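Subject: design request, 163 residues
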């Protein structure tokens, strides 16, 4: 990538091709993105080095692993224990992500559960973490927009061509 902080239109086209065909060869990606094979290989190596591409874990459905319930837990913590709380939450397998927030809550914790009882147990484990002052749990009733990056890639591919 020319600029390690941002992708250019060629990067965006390559990432779009990769998103559409994740198992494609470098030659196939080059053809789809309108780039040379060497350019594709170089940019893929740069993506690895700069952590532009994340783990395939986003593609695995928790429901397929027996965790059909999703919830978000907002957490208020003692500020001096924030790092310790984060490290403790990382040890709970049902915790998929933890985001630091501004506002009334300090953390937004994305969790999954096998059923309501399992969610209750997981929420209790979060509340038991040293430094956690208060939690509020919201059960996801329906997901309206799945995690996606393609619209941003499409925008980047078009916007950067105009520059």
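Subject: RE: design request

Done. Sequence follows.
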């Amino acid at each position: 990538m020319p600029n390690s902080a941002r992708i250019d239109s060629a990067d965006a086209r390559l990432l779009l091709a990769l998103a559409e065909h994740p198992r494609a060869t470098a030659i196939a990606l080059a053809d789809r993105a309108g780039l040379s094979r060497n350019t594709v290989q170089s940019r893929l190596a740069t993506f690895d080095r700069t952590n532009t591409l994340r783990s395939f874990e986003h593609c695995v459905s928790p429901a397929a692993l027996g965790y059909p319930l999703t919830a978000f837990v907002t957490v208020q913590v003692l500020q001096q224990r924030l790092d310790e709380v984060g490290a403790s939450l990382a040890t709970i397998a049902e915790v998929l992500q933890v985001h630091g927030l501004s506002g009334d809550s300090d953390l937004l914790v994305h969790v999954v559960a096998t059923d309501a009882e399992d969610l209750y147990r997981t929420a209790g484990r979060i509340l038991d973490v040293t430094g956690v002052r208060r939690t509020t749990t919201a059960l996801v009733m329906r997901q309206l927009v799945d995690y996606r990056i393609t619209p941003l890639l499409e925008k980047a591919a078009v916007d950067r061509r105009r520059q």
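Strands lie at 69-77, 95-100, 107-113, 132-139.
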